[in-house]
Design a protein that fits this description.
- The protein has 584 residues and is an alpha/beta fold.
- The chain is built from 23 helices and 18 strands.
- Strands 2-1-3-4-6-5 form a six-stranded parallel sheet, sandwiched between helices. A six-stranded parallel sheet has the order 9-8-7-10-11-12, with helices on both faces.
- Strand 5, helix 7 and strand 6 form a beta-alpha-beta unit.
- Helix 1 runs parallel beside helix 7 and helix 3 packs parallel to helix 5.
- The N and C termini lie far apart (69 Å).
């Protein structure tokens, strides 16, 4: 057998159904082996290696399986860096195969020569070069084991082309796979005895307890367990931005999103006034803690952490107790240990107080959510989307870029269907991910409609993938927030109290015309009536992708719901009142 045949056979053995990638000089042997196994594994050609990586990232986020993508040597590897770094820091299991120049060419000036193993080492859990064709099965097993065990993340394999062309005696190697490592979490763990008793004692003795659900809960698919524990002990739940969707937003214990970007004031208020906080699957980084300045009343000695990664325990605050383990398993244990007859009255005043604040926030928000001011307000755009998603009545995979849509979507998006998943790549905040991510989201689960949200800056970075969506007939709904500027950066300029904004504006794209040039069904929406009509048609359109070019106010025109920005403008970020805040 050739090395390429063994590689593909191993991938099939690990349950890989789709691999995303871009063709090049060095990966031809790999493509030949894939072609011979078309009925068992599918190759999806992207138009850019970065896009292929974001497809794999979305696949890994929306399944419990690692996303796999491949690229040729040289520039292909360099283009693959951004999505790999994002996946690894976001704890998404992804495996990149870089098909490189033959080993004999090392150090001899061969075109595209690059030390890829070293290049990817700082941004992956493991980055190795295959130097023996017979070691391919062993290294593939290690790749899946590393990507899916412990804290999940990215793995990079540099595979020289001659390793794929080499003939290997099947009798000399073992092609077995580790069933446990086909998906995350591989080998999930539980904490040492006594830890959970301490956590439960703290939860059941506090008068104002709070659970904060982070991205690790969504990664572990532990939303139902968070909900069950909260209901059993009558404890309110906040989420981080990446934990959004842990429980339905209309649940009586669902408070809202904490942190800096797109936060709910009543959720941040709850974090500050709780007497005990249980963080689950959150590293408590700069966004959650607003640069480690919030809460104003220190979190020290009133926090417990449950996380699969012991390295982040008590990294930023002094924990009462640190619990290392898989979120889902740990929560299941806590649910089983919790008393059947909990004293719900002990925390009911706290729950009622938070619900009153939440109701006050949403009542006041009506003025923003219904404002007909022009250009179209982002708050109104979210309201239109909420209503269309509710009317659709089916689950969706929503992937938003980290830029323009983030603050308003995070604050005003309402997810009532537990089957709907919402993801934002927040580790590095790179643009250009959401459009190609809809491809990965579609292959993750074809029963859920893929929806991509992005600004026009992001659109310009990934517009070529419209062809991919059409070629594959992916029924994605693409929402383009169009205003001709890098709004987040322009807003940072204006926060300094002046309007000297440099290098942030560009020509607004003709989104509908561009989409139609790729044979994508498209509409333009400049007001709520047009957006409502376009959304209704978009959700009804199932024959391939569609795009709505939404001409929307920039977040550089009014201060968005960002805690630190509002503070700089002298406003109280914890106020539940609706207020239009200007830069100057």
């Amino acid at each position: 057998m050739r090395g390429a045949d063994i590689l593909v056979e191993m991938l099939i053995g690990y349950g890989v159904e789709v691999i995303f990638g871009v063709p090049g000089d060095t990966n031809v042997p790999f493509y030949e082996a894939l072609q011979e196994n078309e009925g068992k594994i599918r190759h999806v050609m992207a138009r850019d290696e970065r896009s292929a990586g974001y497809m794999a990232d979305a696949y890994g986020r929306f399944t419990r399986k690692p996303g796999v993508f491949e690229c040729p040597s040289g520039a292909g590897a360099m283009y693959s860096l951004p999505p790999v770094a994002e996946s690894n820091s976001s704890s998404v299991p992804v495996i990149l195969l870089t098909i490189d120049i033959p080993l004999p060419g090392e150090g001899r000036g061969v075109l595209t020569e690059l030390d890829c193993a070293r290049l990817f080492d700082p941004i992956t859990k493991m980055s190795v070069q295959v130097k023996s064709a017979e070691k391919l099965p062993e290294i593939i097993r290690r790749a899946f084991r590393v990507a899916c065990s412990g804290k999940p993340g990215a793995v990079h394999l540099q595979i020289p082309e001659d390793m794929l062309l080499a003939e290997i005696d099947p009798a000399r190697v073992s092609l077995h796979v580790e069933t446990e490592c086909k998906q995350f979490p591989a080998y999930p763990t539980l904490p040492a005895p006594g830890k959970l008793e301490t956590v439960l004692d703290l939860l059941t003795s506090s008068k104002r307890p709070l659970i904060v659900s982070g991205g690790g809960v969504n990664r572990s698919c532990a939303g139902p367990e968070v909900t069950a524990l909260a209901e059993k002990l009558n404890i309110p739940v906040c989420t981080t931005m990446t934990g959004q969707g842990t429980m339905p937003d209309d649940h009586r214990l669902a408070v809202g999103v904490i942190g800096d970007n797109g936060f709910h004031p009543h959720a941040n208020w709850a974090l500050e006034h709780s007497d005990f906080v249980l963080f689950v699957g959150s590293r408590m980084g700069s966004v959650v803690t607003i640069g480690w300045t919030f809460p104003k009343i220190t979190l020290n000695k009133r926090v417990a952490q449950i996380d699969i990664d012991p390295e982040i325990m008590a990294n930023n605050y002094e924990n009462v107790v640190s619990v290392q383990g898989d979120a889902r398993l740990v929560l299941e244990q806590l649910i089983g240990m919790a008393p059947e007859k909990n004293d719900a009255a002990r925390t009911q005043d706290w729950v009622d107080e938070l619900n009153d604040l939440r109701a006050d926030f949403w009542e006041n928000a009506e003025a923003l959510l219904n404002s007909e001011s022009m250009p179209l307000r982002p708050e109104l755009a979210v309201r239109c989307f909420n209503e269309a998603l509710e009317a659709y009545g089916k689950p969706a995979h929503i992937y938003s870029d980290a830029g323009t849509p983030t603050p308003h979507m995070t604050r005003f998006l309402k997810l009532r269907d537990r089957r709907t998943r919402f993801a934002i790549p927040r580790a590095f905040g790179g643009l250009g991910s959401a459009l190609p991510a809809t491809v990965g989201a579609w292959f993750a689960d074809k029963e859920r409609r893929p929806i991509g949200m992005f600004g026009d800056g992001s659109f310009g970075m990934s517009v070529g993938e419209l062809e991919t969506l059409v070629r594959l007939q992916v029924p994605a709904i693409l929402l383009l927030f169009n205003n001709g500027t890098f709004g987040w950066i322009k807003g940072l300029h204006r926060l300094k109290g002046h309007n000297r904004c440099f290098g942030v504006d560009f020509m607004p794209p003709k989104g509908q015309a561009i989409a139609e040039a790729f044979d994508v069904k498209a509409w333009t929406a400049k007001n709520a009536k047009e957006l409502d009509a376009a959304l209704n048609e978009a959700f009804a359109h199932t024959q391939g992708p569609c795009l709505i070019d939404i001409h929307v106010e920039s977040i550089a025109d009014r201060v968005p719901p960002v805690y630190s920005w509002l503070s700089k403008r002298g406003k109280d970020p914890l106020s539940t009142k609706a207020e239009e805040v200007r830069y100057f």
